[in-house]
Design goal:
It is built from five helices and 44 strands. The chain is mainly β. The longest helix has 18 residues. The radius of gyration is 26 Å and the shape is globular.
Length: 741
Amino acid sequence: MESWPSRIRNVAALVLAAAALVPVRSAAQDNGAADPESLPRPEWHLTPSSGIRIDGRMDEAAWKDVEPITDFVQSEPETGAPASERTEVRITYDRNYLYVGAEMFDSDPDGLVLGGLERDSPGILFEEMDAFGLALDTFLDRRSSFIFFVNPAGAVKDGQGTDDGRARDYGWDGVVDVRTTVHDRGWTMEMAIPWRTLRFDPTLPDQRWGMNVMRRIRRKNEVSYWAPLDRRNRIFLMSKAGTVTGMGQLPAARNLSVKPFALASSSRNDALEIDPRSTHADGGVDMKWGITPSLTMDLTWRTDFSQVEVDQEQVNLTRFPVFFPELREFFLENSGTFAFGDMDGGPGGPRLGSSLRDLTLFHSRQIGLRGGNPVPLLGGARLTGRVGDFELGILDVQSKSYDGLPAENFSVVRVRRSVFRNSDVGFIVTNRTPTGVTDGAGNLAAGVDANLRVFGGLFVNTYLAGTRTGEERDRAARLSVGWRDRLWNTAAAVRRVSENFDPGIGFVRRRAIRESYATVGIHPRPGIPHVLEVNPYVETTYTTDLGGRLESRESQAGFGVSFDDRSSLGFTYSRRFERLDVPFPVRPGTSIPVGDYRFGEGSASYRSSQGHALSFNAGVSGGGYFDGSRFTLTGGIRWQPDRHLVLDLDANHNAVTAQGDSFSADLYAARVQYAVSTTLNFSGFVQYNAATEEVVTNLRADLIHAPLSDLFVLYTERRSTTSIGVMERYFTVKVTRLMIF
């Protein structure tokens, strides 16, 4: 049998051969530009002004006295070249607001991709529209940021960046006033950010902030920055940002906000034998208090999550548990602070072959949910922010007793210290303890980690963690080293997860293993019309039990193509070995027996540009599946005729043969969104799971009646297509009101 090091050498040789065959065209060859990140970081001095009205027009006299930022440099597609269209950004301030005005001139205003009106669109969709972006490093630590994006329709997407953008938190929402206007010269944006929305040190006599500004021209696939960035990096890379000065000493805000809520709901559950119908009324409050300029305390009492969508149905044909992402707003905010585990390389980082979906010490879905059912929470507190070179996160949440199970307390402490320029070391401790039960066994988990970026493109990530549940104690560890530059993407990693490693507020996909991973890939820009980048790569994963006996092996070769309109094409082929020591059920009545299995699978996929009114994606894969076969077809269509309406249709078909049994596992989903304005929108999400014969429907109306204050009307239903009929049905009305002091 070929040894694992031999396989690595062979697959690396394949990529090296591919690199030699691909004609590489660098940005410097195209336009004579140097590496944009080697250029001096720009600086800008602000002057105060007054009399500005936010209406999306910039016709006040005060704007004319503000000198504009005009020198933008492309990140894509011609890295280092001047922006193809003129942009003028004016920034000024008074005692209450930071004002940002931008004129995005465009030689073809009819070609603008306006986007939708909904706030906080998903990242992949927001990248498919024209946009203006602003990142502010208010403590000049070159690691953290407040991020604001605006599209020509006037929709806002905002968030916070930490760890030099490696973690982004788009659950954060700031009070900001934005207006836009589309005209025959392009489009105009005006933004007013209250000082109380941001965090900074008001004791400083002269503020110095990190800043970067971005413009995206979607039809040209062009992204340009004030502080130039390479094509693999993004606006939240604050270590490469510019600097803004001139604001003097800013007013200190009390940084106190209170957000009460009230709700009423009616439910029906025909699965219950007694009282299938019920009504419910409740209320609670969330409070946010800026204890210091860089530390924020969040308090919640009688927390409710009724505005959340239902989970997206998934097909699981593996022998491991499925990871469901967090959707609840309370836990999404500042989530990056608590990240610990098998993190990927992040934007601009190398491919590392794993993610938090494989192992994480803190997964907030363990709080407030059991078996997908909501558990009532009494309340909680969260402290996040920075103290000098330390990033701090403390969380404590108390649940109520539920369905005969005791109440529980969940607590997390996360500390990271900045080292070098954009690296960190830290630790985390989590605790899950039943309350009111004397003999209940709690769970304790702790870990230390280091995330280092040195010599520009070298990434080193490692952790060591341990857990204790009653008398059971065990550990997990990982070390990964990767290199990513403008051409190469290569990495190697090893990790070990013991049999009884069990983080009570975390997630582990696979235990009792030793795993090795390696990959080699390149990202050249060939001189081929309409091709932006190609990405040939190979990777291999070798997994044994703790005694060194092979359990799984997968070797994969892939080839991706990115086109200049942001469409993409991908091909993969993999060979797998799986050893089963216990039977593996694939569906009721059918199991894969104990044994050794070798099989291969190939796939092809295409995603069109979503910058068009009509876009689609399609994929096909097929090959072996243990002792049988699997054939998969996936597809989706997205239609956005204007800024108001978006319709998505998705389908996933799996035809499986195993142990002589042939069956299909299909999922179908339809989502429609209609935004009347930036303050009123409606959405509907319907899913059909053919395997469980269930239809899940989620309908929501949201009226933003004041800044960050909502009136939700929600309807959720789970219905069986068999004779059972309605299994669950909920109708909820909820109102929130943000009050800032």
